[in-house]
Every structure is written in C-alpha cells, then in structure tokens.
Automatic annotation (TrEMBL):
Protein's name in the database: NAD(P)H-binding protein
Pfam name, any one: NAD_binding_10
InterPro entries: Ergot_Alk_Oxidoreductase, NAD(P)-bd_dom, NAD(P)-bd_dom_sf
Residues of the NAD(P)-binding domain: 6-179
Originating organism: Streptomyces litmocidini
C-alpha cells in the first residue's frame, strides 16, 4: 500500500494518477471531491495533517508514503512523520526544493524546507528526498494576462531557471515509491536547459500563434503584486529567491531526471504545447 498526500496539487495529482492503475493506493486529502486518480485499489481518506485520527486511518497498513506539505508556518511534516512511525510505515518520499542545498538561500521558505528535510532524515524511517527546481507550471500564473492582454508580466526578464516539468518530478516520485535502492537518495531535479521569462514568452507566442509582449515588473511592482496574494514574510522570501535566480543560482542543469527515467527531461517547449489551452 502506498499513500499519497497532496493528491489534488501539481505533483501529487500526477503521482496518484501514475500509481493508481497498478498499485494499492490510499489518498489523504481535505477535499476528496477533487481527487481524479482512478484504479482498482484506490481509497480516499478525508482528513489532514492536523487531524490525528485521519492520519492514523490513512497510514495504517501503508508501506511507502509521498509527503507534500505547503503551510510554512505549520509543523505538518513532524505531525506526519510521528504518525507514520507509529503506524509502521517503512519509506518516506519527501518533496523538498533545490534551494536547500544553496548556502546563499536563507529565506523563510528555504529554512522551513531544510527543517523538514532534517525531520525526515532523523525519523528513523527509510527516506528519499526530491529537490526540484521551479515548476514550469508556475507560468500558469501568467495565463489571465496572456488571454486578456497578450502580455507576460514577471519580475525579471533575463534571469535563467532550469525549471522542471512537474510530470517529470511525479515520475521520479513514483519510481522512488515503487523501486528498490532509493533509500537514502537525494535527487536534484531540473529541466534540460535554463530558460528566462523572455524565452518562455517567445515559446508561448509560438505555441499560441500570436504575438505576446513581455513586461518586466522590477522589485517594487513585484512586491506590491505579491503582497496582494501572500503575507509579507512569504513575499520577502519569494523576492529573495528571485534575486538568487538573477545572480545565476538556479541555472544549473542536473542529470537525475534522465538518469532515473531513461529519457531526456521534458523541455519548456513541450510543456507549453501540452498546456496551450490554458493560455488560449
């Protein structure tokens, strides 16, 4: 039995879809109605990290679990690990972030991810850590302005990121959950090349068959836009991360995706073509 958390989110949804046809699968979620994975042995448990009873129901009889958390001010990883240990789970596959290995990354989100990794490493369970670069799907935040104005607005136009297709991250996660030899492994996951927002805009323009204009926000306009969506501490963490990207910290291409999956990592061109309807 495999448990997937985050199964209504970007990576967890795809992990569940990949596993559902051939594996006994349990899904823990606060929103069962949003689960799309279907298979002969899929069960859904309504609950969450702050509900000990639902954690126990979800984790009982589970061999391996995919752990995704996103509430930076909460100790959801520690809660899950305690319950997993009590229920006899043997292997945790944790979705982390590439920034944790960068000594220059000292923002709130990265410190939280480092603490989560520490908790996993010290859990006494077998573990695998996945450290992806930014998701290509983050560009979906551009979609409303692309559709209505034909414009892409981003903080910086020429800073490069070796962003990764979330589907590749999910395939690596499914591999780690179902294959031997993944215990104690740390996988840095990137796309096949570093791309800038200007280059992504050009790709989207080609895919959509119409011109798009790029507009660089700069730090102050970006801060104002972020504060409309996030608390100040999260906003400052995201701006710090963008500054590191501008300094080249996110341009490195890693080899784990092709090494594990036996094929090249998907390009942004491929991702854009597959998701063109979202921008159309």
């Amino acid at each position: 039995m495999i448990l997937v958390t985050g199964a209504t989110g970007t990576v967890g949804r795809e992990v569940a879809r990949l596993l559902a046809p051939a594996h006994p699968l349990r899904i823990l979620t606060r929103r069962p109605e949003l689960v799309t994975a279907q298979g002969p042995a899929v069960t859904v448990v309504r609950g969450g990290f702050t509900d000990p009873e639902s954690l126990h129901r979800a984790l009982t009889g589970v061999h391996a679990a995919f752990l995704v958390t996103n509430r930076v001010t909460e100790e959801d990883d520690a809660r899950f690990i305690d319950a997993a240990r009590a229920c006899g789970v043997r292997h945790l596959v944790k979705l982390s972030a590439a920034a944790v290995e960068d000594p220059e990354a000292d923002d709130l989100i990265t410190r939280w991810q480092r603490e989560n990794e520490r908790a996993v490493r010290e859990s006494g369970l077998a573990w695998t850590l996945l450290r992806p670069r930014s998701f290509m799907s983050n560009t979906l935040s551009w979609a409303p302005a692309v559709r209505s104005e034909g414009v892409v607005r981003a903080l910086y136009g020429e800073s490069a990121n070796a962003c990764v297709d979330p589907r590749d991250v999910a395939e690596v996660a499914a591999h780690a959950l179902t294959r031997d030899g993944q215990e104690g492994r740390v996988h840095a996951l990137s796309g096949p090349e570093a791309v800038t927002a200007l280059e992504q805009t050009a790709v989207l323009s080609k895919v959509l068959g119409r011109p798009l204009r790029f507009e660089e926000l700069g730090p102050e306009r970006a801060r104002s836009a972020l504060l409309d969506r996030y608390p100040e501490a999260i906003t400052e963490a995201l701006l710090h991360s963008a500054g590191r990207q501008q300094n080249g910290a996110k341009a490195r291409v890693d080899s784990a995706v092709p090494a594990i999956l036996g094929r090249p990592a998907r390009t942004f061109d491929t991702w854009a073509a597959d998701h063109a309807q979202a921008f159309a």
